From TrEMBL, chains A, B:
Keyword Plastid: no
GO biological process, one term: 'de novo' IMP biosynthetic process
Main location: cytoplasm
Function: Part of the phosphoribosylformylglycinamidine synthase complex involved in the purines biosynthetic pathway. Catalyzes the ATP-dependent conversion of formylglycinamide ribonucleotide (FGAR) and glutamine to yield formylglycinamidine ribonucleotide (FGAM) and glutamate. The FGAM synthase complex is composed of three subunits. PurQ produces an ammonia molecule by converting glutamine to glutamate. PurL transfers the ammonia molecule to FGAR to form FGAM in an ATP-dependent manner.
Species classification: Bacteria, Pseudomonadati, Balneolota, Balneolia, Balneolales
Chemical reaction(s) catalysed: N(2)-formyl-N(1)-(5-phospho-beta-D-ribosyl)glycinamide + L-glutamine + ATP + H2O = 2-formamido-N(1)-(5-O-phospho-beta-D-ribosyl)acetamidine + L-glutamate + ADP + phosphate + H(+)
Pathway: Purine metabolism; IMP biosynthesis via de novo pathway; 5-amino-1-(5-phospho-D-ribosyl)imidazole from N(2)-formyl-N(1)-(5-phospho-D-ribosyl)glycinamide: step 1/2
Keyword Cytoplasm assigned: yes
Organism: Gracilimonas mengyeensis
Protein name: Phosphoribosylformylglycinamidine synthase subunit PurS
Length: 81, 81
């Protein structure tokens, strides 16, 4: 059993209204040191595969088909055993 | 300027309906190797601080006050320069 950690982030050119709202709220709380906020997804998957490469292939397929929107988002996969 | 990467995850005892829905959808796509899915948040912050410790303190404060709900969620902070 492998554990996959996936971070899905909006591409830099895409506006992030959720991040903008969080940034604004942090400024209202007095945390003016924060210059920018961008919010993405962090997805943990348990994958049953025979080796790390097979696990990574499954997770890549899951990201491409469902978990990330490749038009607007990038994803990064880390596999742990 | 420091870059902070924050992962916010639901505590293990908390139900994750978003993750359950994603798991179900992956099974419908034939990705039966995936045994469990949990979905959290990945937040990137640019922080203007004099050193790494100061940047971390700002981000911890941001997480505790706004970005994470500590009743249900855990967060992990990584600071990069």
């Amino acid at each position: 059993m492998y554990k996959a950690k996936v971070t899905v982030t909006l591409r830099p050119s895409i506006l992030d209204p959720k991040g903008k709202a969080a940034h604004h709220a942090l400024q209202n709380l007095g945390l003016n040191e924060v210059q920018q906020v961008r919010i993405g997804k962090f997805i943990e998957l348990d994958v049953d595969a025979k080796d790390e490469a097979a696990a990574k292939a499954v997770v890549e397929s899951a990201c491409a088909q469902l978990l990330a929107n490749e038009v607007m988002e990038d994803f990064e996969i880390v596999i742990e055993s």
